[in-house]
Every structure is written in structure tokens, then in C-alpha cells.
């Protein structure tokens, strides 16, 4: 009984740490994109340390106070890199069984649709209806045929371009879901107050 309780606590801690790492990395990601220059590791560390500091005092993160403190301590000094340490925490709550890329992609899209309360569209770039769901958000895969991105074994062979339109809160949910994925990562091709266009590729 005791061991199952400990296992649950460990799983809860892993999930909490994974969620916090995603939010911290997203915060850093937006700061990097808002900066006119490339931020060195020390400045990235400082931004993350500043964002994480109040979380150490929060009751919500009481369960992971020790590992969080350990992370921030490890990142101090010349060679410390808090960004890399946090990236290792992302997905700490997920099982490590490998899945075909197509399955992982469909699970990711399903998760994003639930979080945003929308349906992901598929359209050629020149045919996208940018006014779709004016009071909600737009998320569209920019492709003529999704099958051309995967081979016969369901492995991803070509990056997938995606366009999002909506408020920053929903943009964070969208990008955060990809950030938490063990299979995929994204590169921002374009963004402004309304839109962000990314390419989805293997991590």
C-alpha cells in the first residue's frame, strides 16, 4: 500500500515538474523571439531563474520544491545551462514506449484540439480561410495531403507546416503541447500579434 502511494506521489511530481518545465521554456521562448539579438546562455539562465524563483515559494509546487531547487542550483556558474536541464524534465511523466510517428502526430493533434476546443483544418497555404471561426481560433495544417509527410511505415519524412490564429493564451496551449512532446519539436517561421506559423519536425 505504501509503495503504491509513493509511486503515485512520484508520478504526480513528475507530471508537475514536466508541466512547470514546459511553462518555463515557453516563457523563455517568447523572450528570445521578442529580443532583437541572440541571447547568450547566461542571460537565458537569468530569465529562467527569475521566472522560477516565485514558484519555489508556491504551495502548488510544494511536491517538487527539492528537485526544483536542485535544478536552479545546478544551473549556477559559468557552465550551467538551465534550459537544457528543463528540457530533460519535459515529458518526464510520459512512458518511453516508442510509437510510429503518425500515431504520435494524431495523438498530439487530438490533445491540441481538446485544449483549444477547435478542429484542426487541412488546406493548401493559398486556400486557407483566415477568417474561419472569427470568435475562436484557427489551426490549420498547410498541406495538400497529409500522407505525403509520412512513409509506408508511418515515419515522418517531411516537416509539417502549421498556421495558428488566436489569442496568446491559446497560442501558449498550442505551442506548449508540442513542447511537451517527446517526438516532435517546432520552429517558428513567422509570428505577429494574431498569427504564428511553425514547422513541425522530429525532436
From TrEMBL:
Protein name, as recorded: DUF2913 family protein
Pfam families: DUF2913
Source organism superkingdom: Bacteria
Entry-linked InterPro entries: DUF2913 (IPR021316)
Organism annotation: Vibrio alfacsensis
